Amino acid sequence: MKTEGSRSTVARAPDGAAKSTAAPKAAEGGRKTAAASRRARELTIKGIPVSPGVIIGAVFDTSEVPPEAPRRRIQAGQVDGERQRLAAAVAASRKQVSKLKARLGVLPEEAQEELEPLLDAYAMMLGDSRLIRGARRRIGEELLGAETAVQDEAESIAATILATKDDDKPGLKRRAGEVREIARRLTRNLTATPFRSLKDVPAGAILVAEELTPADAALLDPTRIAGVATDEGGADGHTAIMLRALGIPSVLGCAGLTEAATRGDQAVLDGAAGTIVLRPGAAALETGREALAAYAKEKARLAKLRRLPSITQDGEEVELQANLEIPAELPLIAQAGAQGIGLLRTEFLFMNREDLPDEDAQVAAYTQVVEAMAGDCVTIRVLDWGGEKDMEALAEGIGPFHAGPNPALGLRGIRMLLKKPELLEAQFAAILRVAGTAAQQVTGQGAPAGQIRILLPMVTVPEEVRQAREIYERVGRRLRRKGVPLPEKMPLLGAMIETPGAALAADAIALEADFFAIGTNDLAMYTLAVDRAEAEVAHLYDPLHPAVLRLVQFATEAALRLRMPVSVCGEMAGNPRLVPLLLGLGIRALSMNASAIPRVKQMVRSLKIDDCARFARRVMEQGDPKRIQELVMGFGQDG
Fold first, then answer.
1. Which residues pair with 592 in a beta bridge?
2. Which of 254, 377, 545, 569 is catalytic?
3. Is the pLDDT of residue 88 over 90?
4. At residue 324, what are phi and psi to the nearest 5 degrees?
5. Which residues, at least 6 apart from 371, have a Cβ–Cβ distance to it below 8 Å?
6. Is 569 a catalytic residue?
7. Dist CA 558 CA 554 (whole Å)
8. Does 532 appear as a known binding residue?
9. Which of 74-78, 167-171, 173-177, 556-560 has the lowest mean pLDDT?
10. Which domains, from first to last, does the chain contain?
């Protein structure tokens, strides 16, 4: 060792003999050599499996420079200046969150459903929240610098959350993490510390980091980043949910990973096993290749189903369609073998822009989708804005709407469109123009080049469909007077059944609508009074609750009595386990994320309708959700 100040080159051993400092230096060099040797050896690190898939690729490590924000006190005369700094950081943070929300349109549906309520929570915390009020108070009363005030208030709130008596510990940790994440963002903006950049990650790399925030995950490009592994994190956090939604093979909670990994190291990541092997030797590499081949074989087996019909063993056809968020997803729909688009969400047209899309812009967007589907049906849902959705173009273009204390129960969906009919008229006109062009483009067999349907969101009473149809027919008459070519038969006008009121009034709504699309996500939420984004009650969300199933059954039977098309377009549609039940209830059309179609088709092709009908009757006799879950999971195992 060295003496104080490292001034002497000679140190005394305990026996008084002189000892050269070369020995400690040699030992230090030996330690470095040993560390380098360890870095050259194969190392398997076990973590938490988060998103399945096997990847062999090069490591790309990325770190985030921590902000320099030591505890700081101020003078009384500096209070106003610190509060102004805090206000500027809040404004910058709100702008960053707004940009992240604008990016939602390019993410898969599951990722949007996870990130949107989280970003809404961030936006609320950056408003007149306890965090901001508390930080301002601490600046004035405790004379703390803005960074210190933010950190102290965030930790106080997080401690209160974590001390709550609740069995849902992961949920409490997520909520506390949300508060700390906003504090982290404010601190970085207060100190002008740059955020993590993912722009330079090479294609095919395995991204390695200490930890990824949900905002980081939202910036990942699944076409470039092959896998993700981190030191921190777990299977229940927002980041894990985002990674699963993005379909990126991932392992989190790999202790010591960033210390052991070097950029450029070859690695084998297995998202299902929860392992990452750094610098694999021949045996580990061969094992990884075998696992990768098995994974690819399974994907290829499912891909072969694309060319096979979606038909039960007793000859009943089941229409499998895809939900579409943005036109960029069209190649994925084609690869999945979808029989059309059962739900085209048009919100992408209104996001990430400062003005409302005009009729021509909408025509161009719908035309792209209809032409890509080459004759398959496209169901276009008109704008579903309100509740938790926030679109700058709408706020600027049609004036602000007061969200109210409970936005989910406020002015949203068809309610908002009927209050602002100019929005509905523009969408109807654009869709009719596209339908007219499609009807003129006839194939050699005489079939129209594209069948188009229109879907109304958030319908609760028959009168809403009647009012919408009046606007629809008025727009059609106006276009005909102008000489705009329209199809001989107007596209069907359908209603989404996504509230208990709509399901219970399905008989009456069916007399006004041309078809039903049952949105099971919102239907379950409103029936059970559960917001899946709220950690305290998320465990109560259950689409197999008997109340939800009875509403699905009621709406389906109302449509079938009038020989009217009816489909399911919520998450239930994409779950192969639930297909026997849905078919047994009479559903013959399912719309889902494109990635779910192969496995659902595989299930359809293994079923007989009579078996499904008997199974559905058995399930609908049950009153216990747990028993229903047991029956669904055990289908086909008792005979």
1. 322
2. 569
3. yes
4. -125, 125
5. 449, 450
6. yes
7. 6
8. yes
9. 167-171
10. 43-64+197-297 (3.50.30.10), 76-191 (1.10.274.10), 309-397+408-493+565-634 (3.20.20.60)
